[in-house]
Amino acid sequence: MSAPTTVVSADRPVVSADAGATADRDELLAHFDAIVAEGGMIEPRDWMPDGYRRMLIRQIAQHAHSEIIGMQPEGAWLTRAPSLHRKSVLIAKVQDEAGHGLYLYSAAETLGVDRADLLDALHRGQQRASATFNHPALTWADTGTIAWLTDGAAVINQAPLCRTSYGPYARAMRRVCQEEAFHVRQGYDLMRALCEGTPAQKAMAQDAVDRWWLPAVALMFGPPDTEAGGTDARTAALGAAVSRRAMAWGIKRHTNDELRQRFVDQCVPQAERLGLTLPDPAIRWNEERGHYDFTPVGWDTYREALGDDTHWARQRTAHRRAAHEDGAWVREAAAAYAARENENENENVVEVAAENAAENAVVDARQREEEVS
Amino acid sequence: MSRHREGASASWEVFLRARRGLAHQHVGSVRAADPDTALALARDLYVRRGDPLSLWVVRSEAVHTASPDERDPYFAGAHHRPYRYPEHFAPLTASTGPTEKGADGAHVE
Question: How high is the ipTM of this complex?
């Protein structure tokens, strides 16, 4: 087995020389299944089914891409924040999103992929970020709404992922979740300030909520995986099959529609406290279910409206690609610096030795002088 | 995976002593061309909050690993040597007389 020239991660997966005998594989699979069944964690060097590895790479990459693409709508407001305080908060929040992306790329690399390849795939449009961020942030209130609603949705999605069956993913998610709490709170705080402000400010807050509610409800939780989620039986069955697989492997813990319901239940009272109206006339407490009813998402309309070829989808990828290309000189400079440091290393060893010798000579001379006097 | 690409910098494992009294713990990895940059990136990524005491970065390729699945005898856990565990012996509350443990010198499993 030849070692790859680019080491992706110290916690890199074990590549077996050949697939091994079937009996061997059955035994490995049984071991894997047993760990997952008892709620244990799979670690990078454990044997795992190819499908499990592929599903994780796909999910973690999509998640990482969403974090860094998600910086763009809010990042656009950094220079226009209404106060120094709000600007500092927003910078910290957007910086966190970059960090979340990096935690996740780092976790993905333990599965044997290279983050540069994942970014290539994003730039070429082969992998995607959540379509939520293919909406523009039109006003300052959008930054608060994005944080309150989409980060609020992210917390509901991500809290169960802190117990996902793949160790490095779970650990990355724990870091992410700790920071998301700040994101949601500052978003709610921003909205509260607007709602306590002038009628125009309150109207701006309501307008942002009107535009971001549906993207948060629909897109932050993925396609429906139950018929109750508002789709036809066939689509629901397809979604359910994928969710079942992900849940059997312990990657996911809940269906998309379960989490979506949890989100609506959480948001309704918060919106009431803010004095904002969620743009769905069907929202109503259902005593029998113990949940809020809401209009099922019209998935067909949505799917058409959110093709990859929309203006904002192209814009997000183009911006990301441009940032990467504009940063090429930094990467080249860093590589050149590192190469020069390596070259100098041998010379330095000689220089340091010479300096030490000179210093010792001075000290010795002084000591001799002191002894004499 | 092994192809060389422009700007593909080395992988560094990051270890953080999150607070006084704790050992350094592995927290993830960063990509950087040299150790100073790796440390700066690790700081920006893993210590944006809290009161950390120290940070290590180690080239990922410098980490050598052994795992139970690959080297079984390394990690036998000594379960076949129960006398390495205190439970093998009578508790300090036991008085004299017959016990469930075997006769002196016998390894009961």
Answer: 0.81
